[in-house]
Each structure stands twice: as structure tokens, then as C-alpha cells.
Write a structure and sequence with these properties.
single chain; about 240 residues; mainly alpha; two-stranded antiparallel ribbon; 2 strands
């Protein structure tokens, strides 16, 4: 599988190219390019959230813990003493950073359900809904944010799949086929749960309205990934025949 530095470098390149392309197509204003670029780069590291020892997952729970701690503490300003506020903030942060982190790592398997197209859809749709319903962004801007998450997430999966083939030693690694998959057959309960979540998120997602440029962009990206999937499948079959 690709290492952290490869994922971050390729994520930066792909996200930068994607944001510039969206801006050139008139889908993104100049002031939106930096946040969307950051979303794409962050999403390119998201699939490794199921790795117990990865830096992305530790950083994710650290940021999540700090964010939730502030969200729960700020409304209490003026009601509690400074010392009490500090205790609340520290308690929430430690609970999320170490308590939730321990539970999450115990019940997840690396290269399991989070390394799948289904997980990419869930994260992307969650971004769309969060941007629109929580951050009060226009529907079109929310869908572009979700699109950037999808691009970053799928870039990570494709990289992991490509690095599963050792061309120098002429062999296919055991990890081949575990990253770029529709869902996890080894964990049907998690797959069904994510599928139900994806359907619900799609149901409540805002309607982007009549937006031909967006529809054309999404259709083009969908066709690109379908083509890549077909090419990858043919490559996998050809390599399997070589090593039989």
C-alpha cells in the first residue's frame, strides 16, 4: 500500500488540479478554492481512519476532540467559572481523543469497509449535508464540497490498489483488491449499515437545482471512474494470468 507521504503528495496534486479545473469551469469562485483544496487533501487521507497506528486517524480524533470540546464549552461561558470550563473542555477532549479512539480502533479492521466506494459515498454525502444544513452553504456549493471529498477519497483507494502490484518482483501482493472495492463482503453488517446511511444521506441532501455545468461535471467524473474501474479490472485479470 502507498505510504503516508505518497498519499499526501498525490492528494495535494489531484486536489489542486481538481479545484483549478472546477474554477476554470465556473463552478468555484476564487475565494472558495482554498477550503475546497483542503477538503480534497483531507479526504485523500480519510480511508486510513481505520488504521490503529496511522497518523491520520490520531490527528482526526485529536481535531474531533478539540472541536467537540469547544462546541460544548463555548455555550457555557458566563455560566461556569474558568476552572470549571477548563475541566469540561479537558474532559470532553480526553473522552473523544482516547475513549472514542479506543472504541473505534477496537471495532474496525484496516482495509475493511472504509476502503470501499460505499464509504466514499457516505463521506461525500455527509459533507454535502453538513455544508448545507450545518454551515448554511448554498446547495450548489455544498455539492461541490462533497465532490472534492469524493475525488480525494477515491484517489487514496486507487493509489492503494496500484501499490498492491509489485512490478519489480513480478508479483501481486496479498492486499490487491482490498482497497478499490464497492463494499466489504467480509463485514456484511457494516456494509448494510453504511448502505442504509448512504441512502438516508442522499434522501436528505439538498437539491442542486437546474445546474447543467454541475451535471456535466459529475457525469464526466462518473464516466472517468467507471473507465478506470474497467481498466483496472482488465489489468487485474491480465496480471493474474501472467502469474498463474
Amino acid at each position: 500500500m502507498a505510504n503516508f507521504h505518497t498519499h499526501i503528495n498525490v492528494g495535494i496534486f489531484v486536489s489542486g488540479a481538481s479545484v483549478l479545473g472546477l474554477h476554470a469551469a465556473g463552478l468555484v469562485e476564487q475565494g472558495q478554492t482554498l477550503p475546497l483544496f483542503a477538503l480534497g487533501v483531507g479526504a485523500s487521507l480519510l480511508p486510513d481512519v481505520d488504521s490503529d497506528t496511522s497518523r491520520p486517524v490520531r490527528a482526526f480524533f485529536t481535531v474531533l476532540g478539540a472541536g467537540l470540546a469547544f462546541a460544548m464549552t463555548l455555550p457555557l461561558v458566563g455560566q461556569l467559572l474558568l476552572f470549571e470550563l477548563a475541566l469540561v473542555w479537558g474532559g470532553v477532549f480526553l473522552c473523544v481523543r482516547y475513549g472514542f479512539f479506543e472504541l473505534f480502533t477496537r471495532f474496525t479492521v484496516h482495509r475493511g469497509i472504509w476502503h470501499s466506494w460505499l464509504a466514499a459515498a457516505v463521506w461525500s454525502l455527509a459533507t454535502v449535508n453538513a455544508a448545507h444544513w450545518l454551515l448554511e452553504q448554498p446547495a450548489r456549493a455544498a455539492w461541490v464540497a462533497g465532490l472534492m471529498v469524493a475525488i480525494g477519497y477515491l484517489t487514496h483507494l486507487l493509489l492503494d490498489e496500484l501499490f498492491s502490484v509489485d512490478l519489480l518482483n513480478s508479483r501481486i501482493k496479498r492486499s490487491f483488491g482490498t482497497a478499490l472495492k464497492p463494499l466489504s463482503l467480509n463485514d456484511p453488517l457494516s456494509s448494510l449499515t453504511l448502505l442504509a446511511l448512504a441512502v438516508w444521506l442522499a434522501w436528505i441532501a439538498p437539491d442542486p437545482g437546474d445546474w447543467p455545468a454541475f451535471d456535466q461535471t459529475v457525469s464526466g467524473i462518473r464516466a472517468l471512474w467507471l473507465g478506470l474501474g474497467d481498466e483496472l479490472g482488465g489489468w487485474q485479470r491480465a496480471l493474474a494470468r501472467l502469474f498463474e
